[in-house]
Amino acid sequence: MKIKRFSAGDMATAANLIKDEFGLAAIILSQRELPQEQGGGVEITAGVRDEDMPAARAGRGGNSAGRAGLSEPPAPGRPLAGQALGAAAYRRTEAAAGGSEALRAELENLGQAVNQGLGELKNLILDLAHRQSLSEKWRQRPDLVSLYRRLLETGLAPEQARGLVESSAESARAWGGEVEEHLRKTLRPRLRLVDLSIAPPKFLALVGPSGAGKTSTLVNLAAFYRQRGLKAAAITLDTLRLGAAEQLTQYARILGLGVRVCQNHEEFREARELFETADIVLIDTPGRGFQKSEGRQDLTQYLEEAEAPVLLVLSAAMKENDLARALELARGWRKAGLVLTKFDETETLGNVIGLVMAQAPRLAFFALGPKTSEDFVMATPDKLLDLWLGGDSHH
Q: What is the CATH architecture assignment of 203-389?
């Protein structure tokens, strides 16, 4: 089959181009109006089967001389397969090009009705599949099926979604009230959170994969603790990433924060002594030190020297397998908690909720967006549930 895209200023011109190229056997595959920034007009994709190609055009292709049927007209009374459809499509296009707004509107309405019908059919099929996933006594509850589907669409694992929906339904039946209200009550004690605002450790190392936002998190934490009257300082071990130390130094100057860049263990020891009077010393680490085995060995030595627990920094937009891999890489380090960043880069937080309910470091903070302090939030159950189930927006 020959397929070609035709662009023209209007439908009539495009129709003529198709007719000249493919003849009346042409089949209209798609059409759309072009935006003004692309010059306007219309674009039609049309095609014709090889055996329906007009002889003159086929001969010009240079590879049709020995093909059966390409140089012979169709037998009288036997229209080629697809020719009737192609001619009808062409006539509809030609009619629309001739100014038949009623026909064009009718076709558009028909297309919308078909799309709506397909959408409703898809929903029915999905609801039926989700209904079968619930226990038999809950399958006839449309509200539970809808809630189960909604949790799945946020990225929560099916077994977790089913357990939450059914336990919440049991609670609502026993105590009354809305199922989603009981869902929140069920979830609150399961969310593993930690409060690092009151008595943070003297040294706190931020570790995580490259691009997770460790340096930005360090700046946010320094501002967070300064607002609570604590004297904060910073040490960066990230001398490999271009501009990392300079970036932190600029932020430190704005905040009035003491900062030292360390390239070896001796400089790290001197920096710790320099900041002996600080209430908290935040340590920025390179992503390589987290992801590469040799880097983790060196990073472990730094952590042991400072007796520093780890604040694991991960992106909320990471896939479930990547989150699991990151937790595996961090195994063996003493963990103070977890920071989840880049909530603005994902629409599905089910993987995050699953992580926070699992045996992971307890969630301490999360970053809703790129703004330095406004988007950096201490983790609370209600805030996290609002972001996940609604009631707030992470955009």
A: 3-Layer(aba) Sandwich (3.40)
Strands 203-207 and 280-284: parallel
The rounded percent of the chain whose pLDDT value lies above 70 is: 77
Question: Across residues 211-220, what is the average pLDDT?
Answer: 90
* Spatial contact of 351 and 155, defined as CB atoms under 8 Å apart: yes
**CB within 8 Å of 103: residues ≥ 6 apart:** 92, 95, 96
Decide if 165 contacts 144 (C-beta within 8 A): yes
Helix (H) or strand (E) holding 283: strand 280-284
- Residue ranges covered by each domain of the chain: 2-62+80-106, 123-188, 203-389
> What's the pLDDT band for 164 if we cut at 50, 70, 90?
very high
Rounded Cα distance between 124 and 343, Å, is: 31
- The pLDDT, as a whole number, for residue 54 is 76
Helix 158-175 to helix 142-153 angle (10° resolution) is 140
115 has a pLDDT exceeding 80: no
Does the pTM of the predicted model rise above 0.70? no
Q: What is the 3-state secondary structure (H, E, C) of 26-50?
A: CEEEEEEECCHHHCCCEEEEEEECH
